[in-house]
Amino acid sequence: MPELPSAPITLEGSSVLHQMYRFDWEAWKQRSNEEKREVEEEVVSLLAKWEKGTGDSAKNQSAVFSLIGHKGDLLFLHFNDSFSGLNQIELELAQTRLNAFLIPQHSYLSVVELGLYESSAKTYAALAEKGLTQGSPEWDAGVQELVQRQSSAMAQRLFPSIPAAKYICFYPMDRRRGEARNWYTETMAERQRMMHEHGMIGRRYAGSVRQIITGSIGFDDWEWGVDLFAEDPLVFKKLIYEMRFDEVSAVYALFGQFFIGIRLQTGDLALWLRGKLTSSNSI
Questions:
Q1: Whole-prediction pTM value?
Q2: Which of 41, 71, 235, 281 to pair with 260, CA 20 to 30 A apart?
Q3: CB-based contacts of 188, cutoff 8 Å, min separation 6
Q4: Residues contacting residue 282 through CB under 8 Å, at least 6 positions apart
Q5: Does 252 qualify as catalytic in the annotation?
Q6: Which pLDDT tens digit goes with each residue over 174-188?
Q7: Which class for 80: exposed (0-12), middle (13-18), buried (19 or more C-beta within 10 A)?
């Protein structure tokens, strides 16, 4: 049998943008109470529209989080059907009076991604057994049939609503590509084995944390972004710590900065601008 492709088939869904800002509190304090109130009303109206969903899809949603620590003050998280939709949201935010107080610190662009290791191996083998050549119209049609079937079955995972959990943990990551250890030179079967073991750990936390993986190869500085949502932030530590001991993380994973935030609902942002968290968001 000819050598099969090394890259697994992936499914792509929502376009995702993370925007991290520092807030200029000193400039804010110098504004009159009337101007502050106008800014609050404007941004609360915009956030209410974003939370409800914009455009043709109810999954075009945004959420705001109060960041903990020195890396920023606010995290805007946007899920949309397209990159152009994300750019439109950026422009909407830029037109608000609030934008005058937002100092960009970081951003991350990606798309929701599901890797089909097991299905890819079976599909590649079946197509090769038929004598089809990689890249031929018949081969591509076979791959596309799998993509369409799996995309339909996994639509809710590919185009998720933003979970309503209290806390978010976001971090980017890579797979190691060094001289001694290189994820991309491992065989498909070996990568599939390691990812299966890795995923089994995550399943044990399914009742306490929601995980959304996004792909960013070609879009941003890292290869994937990971969003974790939970009611208890300690679950982030427990899950990630346990995963550090499995092979795929211990040997091949590289991690970027971690951002932890507390969800601000529509009315909460106005209180946040007054230096307060609601009782529902207090620790």
A1: 0.89
A2: 41
A3: 4, 5, 6, 8, 117, 120, 121
A4: none
A5: no
A6: 988 877 888 888 888
A7: buried
